[in-house]
């Protein structure tokens, strides 16, 4: 494991921490994730395809589910750690839904909504996420978002 002072030096000099977050998630290394965060790594920094560490964690988690591999509690803890340190669940939801990858997305959408993502949030260009997804023909995601959005509303209203 890298020392925190060395990791801090790398981060302060512009090292790409995205790959480190992905590696930590793939290897279920919560300690490395925690160290990256403590040393100042940005949990919302996006890579060249505009995915954040949380988006990647959702994608990798979904691959595990699709391939019938068990999810470890450490993987879930890493997702919780990213979110509790400011990872943007709405951004991740937008990227999961907009992804061109042919993966089943329901589990990731459900996870992000349960962690606080707002299906009605406004994206960076001022449009509503649902409206953009409808425009782009993302029928599967629209249907899932509306389903989970209704479930969540039913739980909140008394």
TrEMBL record:
> What SUPFAM superfamilies is this protein classified in?
Ankyrin repeat
Family annotation (InterPro entries): Ankyrin_rpt-contain_sf (IPR036770), Multifunctional_regulatory (IPR050745)
Name the domain of life this protein comes from.
Eukaryota
Q: What keywords are annotated for this sequence in UniProt?
A: ANK repeat, Repeat
Q: What is this protein called?
A: Uncharacterized protein
Organism listed in the record: Mytilus coruscus
């Amino acid at each position: 494991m890298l020392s925190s002072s060395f990791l801090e030096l790398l981060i302060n000099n512009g090292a790409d921490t995205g790959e480190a977050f992905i590696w930590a998630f793939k290897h279920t290394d919560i300690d490395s994730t925690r160290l990256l965060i403590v040393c100042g790594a940005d949990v919302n920094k996006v890579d060249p395809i505009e995915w954040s560490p949380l988006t990647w964690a959702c994608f990798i988690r979904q691959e595990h589910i699709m391939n019938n591999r068990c999810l470890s509690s450490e993987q879930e803890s890493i997702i919780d750690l990213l979110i509790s340190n400011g990872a943007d669940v709405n951004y991740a939801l937008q990227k999961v839904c907009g992804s061109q990858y042919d993966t089943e997305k329901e589990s990731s959408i459900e996870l992000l909504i349960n962690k606080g993502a707002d299906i009605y949030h406004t994206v960076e260009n001022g449009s509503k996420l649902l409206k953009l997804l409808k425009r782009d023909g993302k029928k599967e995601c629209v249907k899932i978002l509306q389903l989970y959005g209704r479930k969540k509303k039913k739980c909140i209203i008394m």
